[in-house]
Amino acid sequence: MARQLGLLIVWQLRRNTGVLPLLVVVQALLSVATVMGYGLLVGRPDDTAALYLATGAPTVSLIVIGLVMTPQLVGRARVEGSLGWMRTLPVPREVFLFADLAVWTVIAVPGVVFGVVVGAVRFDVDLAPTWWLVPAALVVSLTAAAIGYAIACLMPPTVAQLVSQVLSFVVLLFTPVFFPRDRMPTWAQHMHTWLPLEPMAQVVRAGLARHDFTVPGRSWLVLALWCAGAVLAARWALRRRG
User: Fold this and answer.
1) Torsion sign across C-alpha atoms 157, 222, 205, 189
2) How many CB atoms neighbour CB 116 within 10 A?
3) How confident is the model at residue 198, as a pLDDT?
4) Tens digit of pLDDT for each residue in 99-134?
């Protein structure tokens, strides 16, 4: 399986050689623009708000790669027929997902790094990354990518792209990534109790500023359940014909 994974990663990188640099640049610009844009909106935030803003940009980069870019790229693969060809290969379906995750992680890393650096400088905050930040970020990326993969495989390409655009607005404006959940309406707070977006933000936030934030045990559980469910859904979607 390791050899199959390596070959698929190389194939995906070569297949996207022309667009890969552009995607990296776009992700980096999105992360930086998010920090600078929210900075203009809030002016001079207090210490807590500054930490939320500084740690929110890398979270958004990881989520957007999975929920927005994945449906678009997989939808393109469906239209051009490359996804159908991959399904004919004698390779476990999970390998497709992990190979794509590796490629998308390469795309997301510059944006995450730029977001952390620019956020720390722009809002003058001292971040203290913890050792489990990298594996936690990979879980966040895997969860988002698996959800995006399932959306792309189960919906027509045009519909999947529209859904991904709606999700981008939801993540940027209506998710407690850049602000605490208690600022949202009560119904939205209850909704985010069961959705994976807030746990994703909490994991990255606590991983970057461990002295200021913690991750409740319930958030770890919700994120783990969503990760497992999303991977199973993506695997099932890849096994479907059509």
Assistant:
1) positive
2) 22
3) 93
4) 877 887 777 788 788 888 888 888 888 888 898 998
More confident residue, 16 or 203: 203
Check residue 69 and give its pLDDT.
79
Pick the closest to residue 226 from 198, 207, 190 (CA basis): 198
Mean pLDDT of 42-55: 83
Alpha helix ranges (H) inside the chain: 2-15, 20-42, 47-64, 70-80, 82-87, 93-123, 133-154, 157-173, 186-194, 197-208, 217-239
Task: Please tell me the distance from the alpha carbon of residue 67 to that of residue 108, in angstroms, as a whole number.
Answer: 13
Residue with tokens 């959705």: 195
Selected residue with higher pLDDT from 241 and 160: 160
CA distance 35 to 184: 21
Instruction: Check the CA dihedral 70-71-72-75 and report its sign.
Output: positive
Dihedral over Cα of 77, 72, 242, 96: its sign: positive
What angle do helix axes 20-42 and 47-64 make, rounded to 10 degrees? Answer: 160
CA 172 – CA 63 distance, rounded (Å): 10
Please provide the average confidence, as pLDDT, over all residues in the chain: 83
Report residue 124: phi and psi, to 5°.
Answer: 55, 55
The Cα–Cα gap between 51 and 33 comes to 17
Give residue for tokens 């995006």. 148
**In residues, how long is the chain?**
242
Beta bridge partners, 128, equal 209
